Amino acid sequence: MARGQPGDRVKSTAAHRAAAATIRPRKSLGQHFLTDRRVLQRILAAASLSPADTVIEVGAGKGGLTRALASAAGRVIAVEIDEGLCAHLRRPLAAYPNVEAVCGDILSLSPDELLARAQASPPYVVVANLPYYIASAVLRHFLESAQPPARMIVMVQAEVGQSMAAPPGRMSLLSVSVQFYAQAKVLFYVPPRAFHPPPKVRSAVIRLDVRSEPAVAVDDRRAFFHLVQAGFAAPRKQLRNALALGLSIDPASARSLLDTANIDPSRRAQTLSLDEWGCLYRAWRGNGRPSGQE
Predict the structure, then answer these.
(1) Band of the pLDDT at 161, cuts 50, 70, 90?
(2) Distances from the Cα of 213 to the Cα of 116, 181, 241, angstroms
(3) CA–CA dist 178, 182 (Å, integer)
(4) Residues 282 and 203 occupy one common structural domain
(5) Within this chain, do residues 16 and 157 fall inside the same structural domain, yes or no?
(6) Measured over all CA atoms, what is the biggest interatomic distance in the chain, rounded to whole angstroms?
(7) Which of 31, 151, 254, 288 lies 20 to 30 angstroms, CA to CA, from 186?
(8) Residue 92: inside a domain, yes or no?
């Protein structure tokens, strides 16, 4: 794929911008196009890319961030589900030989498959602007994959980002699910005016540094998260009552389980640290819960 002459690049970029102005965001896909170049540059800086890096971009949109990533990384795999946008992207991205544009649903494309299509190999970095309705699913898709990324820079609704990075006392099921696999940090917030059309809420850019090993050593991750889900089954209730409800056991058994884990039964799920969830899991396993229980 030829890179082209500088004059060709300018003409191509001008034509691309003119065509991009006619594209209308699709509400059904939660599309809000980032138009603030200062925010784009902050995202690029947060990704800490080098020519040795491979990037999987989720939601290429109009390609503004894609081109910035291509200038900093060795390889960019830009995934876009909107077929209309895919057709629009192909021509301007043809000027970037290190970009592989993929039209498809990210949830149906494994990281290994995407890397193979671009003739790339791990490690890789994920950069994404994620609509609220799909954010958790995309995070799980990468963090739970056989080949997780080295780090992820994701823009999500501010409340979602805060939950991802929340400390004990404000944790949620999402907090535990993300921090089990990665260290999460809110980098900065993005106002609605940075997008077209402006969303009704603020966004936040989050950095996830993926752990080489999960934060909690467990022998059955599926069972571990079943326990965590049970704990958050009724977040406003004390743990002994929430676990009784979520695990379908009587409150006395739930209290005994918490006593074994040395956790006050009157606490609530959001106050537990990852280490405490690990203690509770081991107590549950020692109490005879079936392997792989759902």
Answers:
(1) very high
(2) 24, 7, 32
(3) 6
(4) no
(5) yes
(6) 76
(7) 31
(8) yes
Do 43 and 147 lie in a common domain? yes
Residue 293 covered by a domain: no
Q: Which of 177, 171, 143 is nearest to 273 (CA)?
A: 171
Say how far apart CA 38 and CA 70 lie, in whole Å: 17
CA distance 169 to 150: 28
Tokens of 174: 């999402």
Same domain, residue pair 43 and 122? yes
204 and 179 in one domain?
yes
Long-range contacts of the stretch 175-179 (C-beta < 8 A, 24+) = 176/225, 176/228, 176/274, 176/277, 177/136, 177/139, 177/140, 177/143, 177/225, 177/228, 178/139, 178/143, 178/208, 179/215, 179/274
pLDDT in tens, 192-224: 999 988 999 999 999 999 999 999 999 999 999
Q: Which residues are within 8 A (CB) of 163 and not within 5 positions of it... i.e. 6 or more apart?
A: 170, 172, 174, 175
Domain that holds residue 180: 6-210
In a domain, 173, yes or no: yes
Residue 176 and residue 225 share a domain? no
Under the banding of pLDDT at 50, 70 and 90, the label for residue 106 is: very high
What does the block give as tokens for 122? 């791990």
Separation between Cα atoms, residue 219 and residue 192, nearest integer Å: 43
Count the domains in the chain.
2
pLDDT of residue 288: 66
- CA dist 63 and 75 (Å) reads 15
The alpha carbon dihedral of 52, 72, 112, 217 has a sign of: positive
pTM (predicted TM-score): 0.86
